[in-house]
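Input sequence (130 aa), recorded before submission:
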Amino acid sequence: MRLAVSAERANPTTREVAEVMGVQYTHAAKVVSQLQHLGVVVARRGRGGGLALAGTGRSTSVGWLVRELEGVGDVVDCEGEVSCPLSSACRLRRALRQAQEAFSASLDPLRVEDLVADPTGPVLLSLQPK
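Predicted structure, token format:
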């Protein structure tokens, strides 16, 4: 979201985005790496470098991003180190899977550019490093 409103400004670095958004640099770097791998973010090193949304970044579906970043695994781990004795006949597991699919589907029509429409965009631009 921060990069979507930074289009007119110099491309911020991962460290600058992390500071403004109040997240750990290591976490931000991992997210940037994933977004770069997905083709949503472009990262350039050196003088004049920084982060920017890729050409289609603003029109990327939020539902798609959530699926790609979070994965499509189960909400709960029924097959963990000690598997649940109900795993073969559990109704909750299926209900949670359906709820997770409905959650992602509800985000599908939403685009990154929708997330930064007023009043959010101006607030994002006014944030200062913490």
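Checked by second reader. The chain has a mean pLDDT of 88.
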